[in-house]
Specification:
Number of strands: 0
Distance between the termini: 63 Å
Number of helices: 2
Strand content: under 5%
Structural class: mainly alpha
Number of domains: 2
Helix content: over 70%
Radius of gyration: 30 Å
């Protein structure tokens, strides 16, 4: 079998096409992986933010009880408890807005 110029060109075109497809698939896969990683990062930051809001809420509650001369797990008057609840709710909305 004689290897002609046309066969060599055909083989080269096929190799370039195959490598192009493989490279494109790797690039697409890399971008998808990066998007997934970014998505997971955003989700974990949102979770961390909400956890921090909860910690702040409980800390404020304890501090308010201590300020009033009560035990740290006291029952606060409804106007104070409601205001802490509103602050917590707004901060959680902020977390969800920041990390959507």
């Amino acid at each position: 079998m004689k290897i002609t110029k046309e066969i060599i060109i055909t083989i080269l075109v096929l190799l370039v096409t195959i490598f192009g497809v493989v490279y494109t698939n790797k690039a697409i896969s890399g971008r998808q992986s990066e998007r997934l990683k970014n998505s997971n990062t955003i989700l974990s930051r949102r979770v961390e933010c909400n956890e921090q809001v909860d910690e702040n809420y409980h800390r404020l509650w304890r501090e308010e009880c201590e300020f009033m001369g009560l035990e740290t797990d006291c029952r606060l008057p409804s106007y104070r408890a409601d205001s802490f609840g509103e602050i917590q709710e707004q901060q959680k909305k902020d977390c969800n807005y920041l990390y959507q």
